[in-house]
Amino acid sequence: MRTLPLDRVYQFIEPGPVVLLTTRYRDRANVMAMSWHMMVDFEPPQLACIVSDANESFVPLRKTRECVIAIPPAGLARTVVDIGNCSGRDVDKFARFGLDTKPARRVAAPLLPACIANLECRVIETRLVNAFCLFVLEVLQAWVEPRLRGEKTLHHQGYGRFVLDGDVVRVPSRKP
Amino acid sequence: MRTLPLDRVYQFIEPGPVVLLTTRYRDRANVMAMSWHMMVDFEPPQLACIVSDANESFVPLRKTRECVIAIPPAGLARTVVDIGNCSGRDVDKFARFGLDTKPARRVAAPLLPACIANLECRVIETRLVNAFCLFVLEVLQAWVEPRLRGEKTLHHQGYGRFVLDGDVVRVPSRKP
Q: Does a structural domain hold residue A1?
């Protein structure tokens, strides 16, 4: 994987792909699927996301204040659904679904080399965690996998129905 | 337009389409383009979005605590970019771009009948507005335009480059 310049992170998150979120807490890693996220600022890149307190990843995220957000290619659709349909309480999802990991540089949560991009994140704002399970993250380090450049991403519409990236339309614009 | 059941709102926002946000303040309506938004809860549907304080819509949204979020079909790509590349300070965007409006039921901000869906929203949380320009909204009333069912949406990747909805993949899943 190659370093992704931080000022380009928004180009991966802004179009709304389903992502995987990894954590590591008390030496145990976990991964969940997530579509409720958005950009908050360009650089340093900040994101917000909703991690329900019903998710096994909630406590690790709140306690360690660290995670990795990885953007899976369309070919991982079944794995994404499988990850979303079981809990780290019951199973080691990495082993169960044959998901390779790699140590991150700035956080304890693992990278997912099978993904198009990996964002190492730190929690920077927790005021809306109690009321909305809303975390604001800052991206400390970002990676892109050159072999997966141009792979389509998945956009979830509910119950395992995903729209893939389709045609590209370009309209001249001054706005990032 | 027909009423959209509130428990289905997430299916329109979750896949990450670019949206238009309308406001009305002191009898003046405005509209901006926005890709930094996410779902926060299913029902009643709650969303979060970033409206920069550099945007003309920031003060109207903060003062009136109301807006409409509309999801444009791909055919409106040029209009979306045009809306994003000028300011309501200088121009009446509705007149300039021939954008029809209709009164909403629950808020003063106008609906956009040329869009696939329209969500009438109230601001319910402002604690992160000063630090992050982050608003949490509740959808009070939602509309869908049956003639535009199945139209593709736009996913912004920066500088007027949009990925259109493409093929649909279905993987059996228990999760909404």
A: no
Residue of B nearest to A40 (CA): B50
Tell whether A16 lies on the interface with B, counting CB pairs under 8 A. yes
Q: Which residue of A has its CA nearest to B172?
A: A160
In a domain, B33, yes or no: yes
The tally of domains found in chain B comes to: 1
- The whole-angstrom separation of Cα B151 and Cα A174 is 26
Q: Give residue-wise pLDDT tens across range B138-155.
A: 999 999 999 999 999 999
In a domain? residue B70: yes
Interface of B with A in 88-147 (CB under 8 A): 125, 127-128, 131-132, 134, 136
Residues 6 or more apart in contact with residue B94 via CB below 8 angstroms: B29, B31, B100, B101, B110
- Chain B: residue nearest A46 by CA? B132
- What pTM was computed for the model? 0.97
Structure tokens at B71: 């999801």
DSSP element (H, E) containing B132: helix B129-132
Supply the range of the domain harboring residue B38: 18-164
ipTM confidence score: 0.97
Output the domain CATH number for residue B60. Answer: 2.30.110.10
Contact: B48, A48; criterion CB under 8 Å: yes
* Residue B11 domain-assigned (yes or no): no
Which among A125, A154, A167 has the least Cβ separation from residue B128? A125
Terminal CA-to-CA distance of chain A, rounded, Å? 25
Residue A48 to residue A85: CA distance in whole angstroms: 23
Nearest by CB to residue B167, choosing from A37, A136, A166, is: A166
> Which residue from B40, B85, B165 is facing A173, i.e. has the nearest CB?
B85
pLDDT tens-digit series, residues A91-138: 999 999 999 999 999 999 999 999 999 999 999 999 999 999 999 999
